[in-house]
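Each field is set out underneath.
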Amino acid sequence: MSDEQTQQLLYRTQVLEGYFSELNQKESSIMSIIREATSAIECLKSINDKDDNETLMPVGLGTFVNTKITPNKKLILNIGAGVAVEKDKNSAINFLESRLKEMQIALQETAGQKQQVSEGLQQAKLEMEKLMTAHNQK
């Protein structure tokens, strides 16, 4: 194998490692969104529609204030790109559940991409080992 081929193999390995790292970060972000969506859905489902509910609302840096959630009120829901809409509880839950499904699909796609990149890395490392063995035998 020539020096040029060796450099190409090394470059390909570095690109794959970088891409694998990006996929890990993407997977981590998706998992965070899934946890947040699941938590929001569970919270909304637990709110009693008939009585006032007392709860703690986070205001930042571990600080909470007591607040009441009154029944039959609309929710403000961020739908993306800086846009928020007013929805009733059931519509908000449906929206969040659809986003959750989208994120689960994205997570599966990312896992598939990671598998492909991992296989490419494995192949590149095997080629590199063969190259090193051949070079050491000279």
